[in-house]
Amino acid sequence: MKQRFRRGVAMFLIAAWLYFSLAGVANRLIIQNDGAVPALSQLGSRGQEVREIQTKLKSLGFYSGRVDGIYGSVTRSAVKAFQKSVGITADGIAGSKTLLYLGLGPSSGAGSSGKYSSSDIELLAKLIAAEARGESYTGQVAVGAVVLNRVGHPSFPDTVAGVIYQNGAFAAVRDSNWNVPANDTSRRAARDAVNGWDPTGGAIYYYNPAKTSNAFIRSRPVITVIGSHYFCK
After folding, report:
1. What letter does residue 174 receive in the DSSP assignment?
2. Which single residue of 11, 158, 198, 200 has CA 20 to 30 Å from 140?
3. CB atoms < 10 A from the CB of 39, how many?
4. CB distance 24 to 54 below 8 Å
5. How far is CA 134 from CA 4, 140, 164, 193, in A?
6. Minimal CA–CA distance to 138: which of 232, 44, 226?
7. CA distances for 135 relative to 52, 127, 175, angstroms
8. pLDDT of the chain, 233 residues: tens digit per residue
9. Residue 102 to residues 7, 46, 53, 84: CA-CA distances in angstroms?
């Protein structure tokens, strides 16, 4: 009887140890801590990536809470609002596609160039594909150059994502054109723009005169015309 009792206690202790050990492993897969374990940022996550997401969402006007690195319900709601605004699945989880659209990603590697990350370049390529369809290759690089000129201009946000998602900046972000995926040509155009090719001569605006009657944009001094776009100061 005593032996069976001891065996029962031993089995219980072993089972309890296994349960809590496995729970700890599962928790580490969900809660990102100092970047040691790659994980999706979602409700309950903590760490530097969550802080970066909160900071980016705050700069874009989707998040008004504290930048505390805790992925709570307010952060999830902000992520969902951002996802909905750019036309991707609004599940409140900051997976790889959401991070790409936020302009967050690796800052080094084969796809990066200087201060711009591979995510910046991919997001820029997506905008080029959406805004410059049907334009010549030079015209596509020119659209990318305008975005980068805005990043360096004091009147605009200082990140690629901030410029692209600035309210009212690019019509394609808010309409069906945003569903157009980046392609090899738009990616090459984005890289050429990042590497310093600026066919516009420093433009921070452009417009298609056949498609807009906006008085402000038409009042800007035109630097050059490339295809159907007028590039302006």
Report:
1. G
2. 158
3. 16
4. no
5. 80, 9, 20, 18
6. 226
7. 35, 13, 19
8. 555 555 655 565 555 555 444 444 344 333 333 333 345 789 999 999 999 999 989 888 899 999 999 999 999 999 999 888 777 889 999 988 888 778 775 543 444 456 788 888 999 999 999 999 889 999 999 999 999 999 999 999 888 988 998 888 888 888 878 888 889 999 999 999 999 999 999 999 999 999 888 899 999 999 999 999 999 99
9. 56, 18, 8, 13
Per the listing, tokens 């049907």 go with: 134
Whole-angstrom distance, CA of residue 25 vs CA of residue 15: 15
Amino acid at site 75: T
Using alpha carbons, select from 125, 126, 109 the residue that is nearest to residue 117.
109
- Structure token digits, residue 217: 């944009």
User: pTM higher than 0.70 for the full model?
Assistant: no
Q: Is 24 left (phi over 0), alpha (psi -120 to 50) or beta?
A: alpha
CA neighbor of 173 nearest in space, from 227, 105, 124? 124
Strands (DSSP E) along the chain, which ranges?
A: 205-207, 222-226, 229-232
Q: For residues 176 and 94, what is the distance between their CA atoms, to the nearest angstrom?
A: 22
Amino acid symbol at 104: L
Q: Identify the three-state secondary structure at position 75.
A: helix
